[in-house]
Design a protein that fits this description.
alpha/beta; Rossmann fold; 6 helices; globular; binds S-adenosylmethionine
Length: 182
Amino acid sequence: MKRRLPDKQKRLYAKITGRREVAHQRAGLEALTRRLKLEGAVMVEVGSYTGESAEIFAKSGSFRKIYCVDPWSRTPTEAESLFDKRTKPYPEILKLKGRSVAASRQFSNASVDFVYIDADHRYSAVKADILAWLPKVKPGGWIGGHDYRWRFKGVIRAVDEELGLPLRVFQDSSWLVKVPKL
Ligand SMILES: C[S@@+](CC[C@H](N)C(=O)[O-])C[C@H]1O[C@@H](n2cnc3c(N)ncnc32)[C@H](O)[C@@H]1O
């Protein structure tokens, strides 16, 4: 018979697991930003939720501008206010409230050093995001995203079809592809 954990233990377990996941994500994204070898760069994050990854990018010191695109329309109400609170100390983080493909039209082609996609994880959505944002990346720049793993088969399929196998997949399942120089 399965033993039920008392609520207090369950809360403690969730807290520890959550902390481990955050540490995992941080280590993966830190390794990714080191790999980019960028300074004073412009990046776009597509899908920002509560701003955890945006804060990690800001703390890397590699970016002078970090545009964060998210409609915050289907997220719990606290997600957007948490994003605002968390990103307030970082003037380089610029909030763009809206959907990915529409927001991409605000950017000129070849104007961004790095795009990180972590929005709708369904195959057609990831494909649409890649197609919308790839032309915005400078030749020799980078495109990447989150959740290149079996649980999100649509992510793997869209990335492989549109960009080929990633150059690297990091410990938090972030993927990275270098955009060829002209
Ligand atoms: C997995 S969360 C992002 C997590 C965040 N990158 C982090 O690690 O802290 C996914 C986010 O994508 C956003 N999203 C969903 N569809 C989107 C779309 N079409 N355009 C932009 N963002 C979208 C959701 O509102 C949600 O906040």
